[in-house]
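tool_call: predict_structure(chain=1)
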Amino acid sequence: MWRVGLQAPLSGSQSALGQGMLQGAQLAAADVNAAGGVLGRQIEIIAIDDAGDPETGVSAANAAIEQGLNGVVGPYNSSVGLQTLPLYMTAGLVPIRLTSDNATEGMGITLQPMTSQIAPVTTDALTKFFGAETVAILFDPTQEYTKTAAATVKTQLEAANVTVTSYAEVQPGKDQATYTSAVTAANADTPDAIYAAVYYPEGAKIAQAVTDLGTGQNALPCLLDYSSYDTGYVQDAGATAAQACNVVGVPAPSDFANSDPYVAAYTAEFNSSPGTWSPYTYDSVRILVDTVASVGTWDTAALTSGLTSISNWNGWTGSVSIEAATGNRVPATVVVTQVNDAGALQVDPATPTPLR
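tool_result:
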C-alpha cells in the first residue's frame, strides 16, 4: 500500500470541516484503487488529526512520519502548516497543502486560494458591491491566516480611500455575549459595513450579533472572511442568522461544472452531502497520484518537478494550473457567497463569478 496522510482538524471546533476533508480524500483513494491503484499498489489514506492547533499538529505529523508516509495532503490551518509543512518536507515528502497564508508559499503546492488572491476579492466586495466608504474590522489574533488576512484587507481598503473605523481583536472560543459586545462596539462608529476575519465557529456568533442589531433597512452589511466559509458556519449560526453575513469563499461542491458524478459518488459512499472542502481534498489526492503515475516515482525531486509543471489538469474543482515559483493555483477559485433560504451557501448573484 502507498500511504497518503490527510492532515486536518478532525476534532475540536472545526471538526465538521475536517471530516468533510477526510472523506473527500477517502473517496479519491477509493476511485484510484478501483481503477487499479498507482505504480502497482493501492492507496491508503492515513488520518492525521491536528485539531486546528499547531502543537497538536506537530505531534500528529511527527507520529505519522515515523510510521511511514509516501505523500501528504494538508494541513488546512495556516498556523498549523507553518509548523508541520517543514517537517513533511524534511522527511522528503511534497505536501499538497490546504493552507491559504502566503507565508506557506513554496511548501509543496496547493489547489486552495491564497491571501494575496482572496484579499482583493474581499476588498472589491466591500467597496464595489457593498459600496462601503467606512468599514469596521474584527479579527482573530491567534491564527496566522486571520491576522494576515485582516491586515492585508485593511491596507487595501485604505489604499482605496476607505476609512477603517475600528480594527479590533476578537478571541476565539468565547460565549455569544463576547461577540455581541465586539460587534456592538464596532457598530458604535456607524460604519457602512463590518468585515470579520475569523473561523466559522466565531463567524456564526458574529452573524447572530449582527442579526440582533437589526434586519431589513436597519441591517448592518456584514462580510465574513474566507476563514469562515464552511457548511459548519450555517450549522452553528442557524439558517436565519447565517443570512446576515455574506462570506468570501469558493463555489459549493455542486456548483463546479461537471460536478454531478462527484457529488453522487460522495453521497452514495458516505450517505451525506459533500463537505465544503471535500472537492479540494479529492482533487488534491487525485492530482498527487496522477503526477506520481506520470513521473513514475514518489521521488521528491521528480515529484516536485511534475507537480510544479501542472497545466490545465481537470478535476472536481475545475481546471488546475500551478505557478512553479510559489506552488499556488492560478487562477484562484474565489467567490462571494450568501446563504439562501434553504440554508445552503451559494454564489451571490450580485457579484461576478469568479472575481479573481
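agent: Residues 230 and 244 are 15 Å apart (CA to CA). Proceeding to next step.
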